[in-house]
Each structure stands twice: as C-alpha cells, then as structure tokens.
Amino acid sequence: xxxxTATVGSAVGLxxxxxxxxxxxxxxxxxxxxxxxxGGDPVDAGSALMIMTLGxxxxxxxxxxxDDQSTLDTIVxxxxxxLDAE
Length: 86
Known about the structure:
By secondary structure, the chain is α+β, with helices and mostly antiparallel strands.
C-alpha cells in the first residue's frame, strides 16, 4: 500500500472537527486507510475517535497509508489543510 508523510495543518490539530472530516473521507474510499505518528502504531482513518487518539497537534508529522494513490492524495490533502478555518 502506498504511504506518505503529511504535516497536520489544522490549528487545533486532529481533534473533533478535522478528525470527523478525515474519517468521513476515509470511509467513503471503501478501502483501508490508516494514520500513524512517525514510528507509532497505525489507526483506522475511518474512525474519528481513533484519529483523535493520535493526539496530533498542528505541525505533527503523520504517516498516511491507503490502498490506492487517489485515496492517499485525498487524505493527505485533508490532513494538511486547516479544516477548522472552513
């Protein structure tokens, strides 16, 4: 599975609103997507609660893994966006 490292862009990190937006996009992908802190255990990106357990703050590096490049690109873009500004 392809993976890449993304930097959290949301001012509040991957907390409630950003985690929910990312989880919804991951669930729509219909294939496994995971997020992990560098060197940490991956969590299911389709679960907002699991994303929030990472404790990723703004500027934290997160490894995104997905079954296909299109899904990977979508999730990386969301992780790097300030989802609280929208």
